[in-house]
From TrEMBL:
Name of this protein: Glutaconate CoA-transferase subunit A
Matching Pfam families: CoA_trans
Residue ranges of the TM segments: none
SMART domains per the UniProt record, alphabetical: CoA_trans
UniProt-listed InterPro entries: CoA_trans_fam_I, NagB/RpiA_transferase-like
Superkingdom as given in the UniProt entry: Bacteria
SUPFAM superfamilies documented for this protein: NagB/RpiA/CoA transferase-like (SSF100950)
PANTHER family: KETOACID-COENZYME A TRANSFERASE, SUCCINYL-COA:3-KETOACID COENZYME A TRANSFERASE SUBUNIT B-RELATED
Source organism per UniProt: Jatrophihabitans cynanchi
Length: 286
């Protein structure tokens, strides 16, 4: 089996400005934050970001890297509104496509199985159609003749996801309560990259969680990055929970330009190692 181990910066080196990039996880849960931080260190711009969004979306909006956002929601879970996303929306600084959560799942699934669209009842009778006038409906060709919403496929140039464990060939495993839609992000993408808490021998994957937890197999994956604490400050159950104190610090800083510059200087101006050391130093000082 091919060895697909890479660094965060090598992954970001495979991306280009203007790409459509899907980011896995859910809200402030198991986000590939070390890869997002690597984008912040790069010169990538004008990205179309697809996400069930959390601080991944917020940080990229704050840094001016997002041209268009396709999302089912953007939230920090315990804090309902993501402050940088809120600011970007209020300033009309980004183009947006706002879907129902199920519609976004269907758009990724259609891309995964290389269909132009998939029909659904989700979104019918709601303002989703009003705010997305490009959407079309189709009529069932069977006797029911039901009118359904045709959700267009959403192919991705690249997908970034974070899981608990992986082997060097890219077989990746989640050990928490939910895969979210990380597998769909990977199969909808031309190239998919997995960061993980630990890279382990392949045989150890079966011992850790069983075959049902291996939902991102190596054929979906182009590169794998070992990134301990790589989802911080989002959760990565059962390895660690969300760093709620850090998240509140992030939100407070986002409300004040000077405080935000200090936050960026402290946590986001250096390498991933610098970030992890700053986080650890903060914990030691508490």
């Amino acid at each position: 089996m091919a060895d697909k181990r890479m660094t965060e910066d090598e992954v970001i080196g495979r991306l280009r400005s203007g790409m459509t990039v899907g980011i896995g996880g859910w809200g402030s849960r198991r986000k590939p934050m070390s890869l997002v931080r690597a984008i912040l260190r790069s010169d990538l711009r004008d990205l179309t970001v697809v996400s069930y969004g959390g601080p991944d979306v917020g940080l990229l909006c704050a840094a001016g890297r997002v041209k268009r956002l396709v999302y089912g929601f953007v939230s920090l879970d315990s804090i309902p509104l993501e402050p940088h996303f809120q600011a970007a929306r209020q300033a009309a600084a980004i183009e947006v496509t706002e879907y129902d959560e199920g519609m976004l799942q269907w758009a990724l699934y259609a891309a995964s199985i290389r269909l132009p669209f998939l029909p659904t009842r989700a979104g019918l009778g709601s303002d989703v159609i009003r705010v997305n006038p490009q959407l079309r409906t189709v009529v069932s060709p069977y006797d029911d003749a039901e009118e359904l919403l045709a959700v267009p496929a959403l192919p991705l140039d690249a997908a970034l996801v974070h899981l608990n464990r992986a082997d060097a060939s890219g077989n990746a495993q989640y050990l928490g309560p939910d895969l979210y839609f990380d597998d769909l992000f990977c199969t909808a993408a031309e190239q998919a990259f997995v960061s993980c808490e630990r890279i382990v021998p392949t045989a150890e994957l079966a011992e850790l969680g069983g075959i049902a937890s291996l939902r991102v197999p190596r054929w979906m994956v182009d590169g794998v990055v070992e990134a301990p604490n790589g989802a911080h400050f989002t959760s990565c159950a059962p390895d660690y929970g969300r760093d709620e104190t850090f998240q509140r610090e992030y939100v407070a800083a986002a409300k004040d330009p000077q405080a935000w510059q200090e936050f960026v200087h402290t946590y986001l101006s250096g390498s991933e190692r610098d970030y992890q050391q700053a986080v650890a130093a903060r914990g030691n000082a508490a």
